[in-house]
Amino acid sequence: VMTKQPLVLVFLLVFISYVSCHTIEEPFSVHAHLPSDVTNILLVGGTSGIGRAMAEYYATRLPRASVTIVGRSENAAKDIIAKYRNITFIQADLSLMSEVRRVVEVYKQSHHSLDKLVLSQGILTLNGRTETSEGIDYKLALHYYGRMLFIRELQPLFHGGSRVLSILDGKGGDTSKVEWDDMDLKRSYGTLAAANHAITFNDIMMQYFSETMGHDIAFTHAYPGIVRTTLTDNLPWFMKYPAQFLGYMMGVSPEECAVNMAQGMEGTNGWRCMDDEGNT
C-alpha cells in the first residue's frame, strides 16, 4: 500500500508533466492570417467547445464581421453575446431538419451572403439508436443530416471564396465500413457503425458539394484531435473520467484548436480533409 508521501509525489510528477506539455497562452495569441473582407460568419454548434472558441476567435480578430452562432441553449449563449457586440444568437434544436430549415430562413432575412460556415454540432454518447420526432437517429441527425441540409439550403448565399468547414473526423473516413443497403442504420445500428457512417458521409458530402457548387468554394472536413471540452460529460463515469484525464494530459484547449481550424480552412479551394494542425 502506498503511503501519502509517494502518492503526493506521483501527483506532483503528473502535474509537472502536464504543465510542461501545455504552455499557457493568452487566448488566440497564435497569429493566423484572415482575409479582411470577411463580413458574415455562421457557426452551427457555436455555444460550447470548439464552435464557441471559433466564434470568439472570429469576433476578436474580425470585429466588423457579423458572427452568428446557433445552438440549443440560450443560457449558454448569454455571456458570449454580452461580451462581443458583433455576435448574435439563433436558438434551435439542431437534431431536427425542420429547425435547420427555420434557422436558414431566419439567417437569410438579415444576411444576403455568407463568407464562412462552420458546422461543429455533435454529441458523444453510447446510447443505442434514438430517433428524433422526424424518425432520424439523433447522432446521425447532428453529425451528418443536419450538416448536409445546412450546406444545401445556404447555397444561394455562397460566393467565390466562401468557405465551409465541418468538424468531425477528417482522417477516419472508410467507405468499406458503410452499410450501403442500410444507410440510415435502422437494421444494423451500433455506436461504431453510426460513427463510421457519419464520418464517411461527411467526406462524400464535401466532395459532392465541391463538384456541384463550384471549385471556387472551399469545403473542408476536419479532424480536431483531442480537445479539452465537455463533450465526454455524457459518457458513463468509468469512461468519462479516464477520457477527461487523457484530454487534460494530451489534448489542446478549444482556443488552440480554434486557431488551427480557422487557419486551416483558409487553404486552397475545392474539397479536402484536414488534420488537427490544419494540414491537408
Overview of this structure, please?
With 280 residues, this protein is of the alpha/beta class. Helix content is 43%, strand content 12%. It has 8 helices and 7 strands; from the N terminus they run αβαβαβαβαβαβααβ. It has a 7-stranded parallel beta sheet with strand order 3-2-1-4-5-6-7, sandwiched between helices. Helix 3 links the parallel strand 2 and strand 3 (87-91). Helix 4 (97-110) packs parallel to helix 5 (138-154). It is globular and about 50 Å long. The termini are far apart.
Brief write-up:
With 280 residues, the chain is an alpha/beta fold. It is 43% helix and 12% strand.
Mean pLDDT: 86
Query: Could you give a short account of the major beta sheet?
Result: 7 strands, parallel
Widest sheet, order of strands: 3-2-1-4-5-6-7
Tell me how many strands there are: 7
Report the end-to-end length measured between terminal Cα atoms.
49 Å
- In the predicted model, the low-confidence regions spanning at least 5 consecutive residues are 1-26
Question: What is the general shape?
Answer: globular
* Category by helix and strand content: alpha/beta
What fraction strand?
5-15%
**How would you spell out the order of helices and strands?**
HEHEHEHEHEHEHHE
The DSSP helix count reads 8
Helicity, in percent? 40-55%
CA radius of gyration is 19 Å
